[in-house]
Write a structure and sequence with these properties.
six-stranded antiparallel β-sheet, elongated, alpha+beta, 13 strands, 215 residues, Lipoxygenase-1
């Protein structure tokens, strides 16, 4: 009769259980028996394929690192990244200079530093994990300067995908860079200019934004 162990461990268990029965006779030194038991088990358990990890119950946390970097040239211009996170399971989150987030707990991402003048250093948001959520990425000119195409660029790295984008040749102080989705890893480029950020503290009217449907 098969032993009561998880399915993926059935074959490793059956390959060592005869030896374990012998180890159980190594008395009175039970510590050596337990040590040998652990060695046998660890040597026969197959490695887990990290790409096959499924989200926890409720679909809240998914494996995958990501990063967003924003560069601009003008030293007297202060641009800020704003990340809005909409999840059916949690309250909306707004990550920016006054709420820098956390990479070690939800929402599993953080703003590394608030860069207040353009130059060689990028303002960067970095994520350790992905939520099963809709992410909206924005840049805002804090001092009210126009965001200029030639002086500004943003790079989004999501898994093996790398997107580099410059603003459109339009006037505006707010740049909607694009959206991405935790479950599908899809990136949807917006690249639109606005003059105000969207409401940040409340859920959008109607249902939580869903992932685009595949035709």
């Amino acid at each position: 009769m098969r032993s009561q162990v998880p399915q993926r461990l059935q074959d490793p268990w059956e390959s060592v259980q005869g030896q374990i029965a012998l180890i159980g006779n190594f008395k009175p030194d039970g510590n050596k028996a337990r040590t040998r038991f652990r060695e046998l088990i660890s040597a026969n358990i197959p490695e887990i394929d990290q790409d096959s990890i499924q989200p926890r119950e409720g679909g809240q946390i998914l494996a995958g690192e990501w990063a967003v970097s924003l560069w601009w040239d003008a030293a007297d211009v202060d641009l800020d990244l704003h990340l809005l996170i909409f999840s059916a399971a949690d309250e909306p989150a707004h990550i920016y200079y006054s709420n820098t987030g956390s990479s070690s707990t939800s929402p599993w991402c953080s703003l590394e530093s608030d860069i207040r003048g353009g130059g060689s250093v990028a303002e960067t948001l970095r994520g350790a994990k992905l939520l099963d959520a809709h992410y909206q990425l924005w840049a805002h000119s804090y001092l009210g300067h126009e965001i200029h195409r030639d002086a500004t660029k943003c790079m989004l790295r999501l898994g093996s995908q790398v997107i580099e984008l410059r603003p459109p040749n339009e006037s505006g102080r707010v740049w909607h860079i694009g959206d991405f989705y935790g479950r599908s890893r899809e990136i949807k480029i917006a690249n639109e200019m606005h003059n105000r950020l969207p409401p940040l503290a409340l859920r959008p009217v109607g249902p939580v934004p869903s992932e685009p449907q595949t035709p």
